[in-house]
Amino acid sequence: MYLKRAVSAWAAIILFCAWPAWGHAILMEAAPAAKAVVNGKKVPVRLRFNSRVDGRRSRVALVGPNGRERVLPISGQPSPDTLTAEAEGLAPGQYTLRWQVLAADGHITRGEVPFQAQ
Fold first, then answer.
1. Averaged in consecutive runs of 10 residues, what is the pLDDT profile of the chain (118 residues)?
2. Secondary structure class of 67 (helix, strand, coil)
3. Which of 23, 31, 78, 117 is least enclosed by beta carbons within 10 angstroms?
4. Are the C-beta atoms of 73 and 56 separated by less than 8 Å?
5. Distances in Å between the alpha carbon of 92 and those of 36, 85, 107?
């Protein structure tokens, strides 16, 4: 009986301590991928996360070679864990996709994906 209670208590402690990490949306897949080289002036953007994200309260922006940031309209959410957009008018140079998403449980996560256009 004592052992059963001790195991239950430890399991509860472990779950309680690990719970905050479950709340953050982690980028699992990006297109363009990090450090990718893309061709063309028009590039589709696809970001897939490990959890559901709120597309209406999320943001995707593109930082160009000149350092200016422009917001990319989110064109869709083909599944609850994925955002899509389109980057247009790309001149050759280094770019960074900056994203900010709101996970279903209310945690905000931010990140960047660098890539190069030719």
1. 53 43 83 97 97 96 97 96 97 98 93 98
2. coil
3. 78
4. no
5. 13, 19, 35
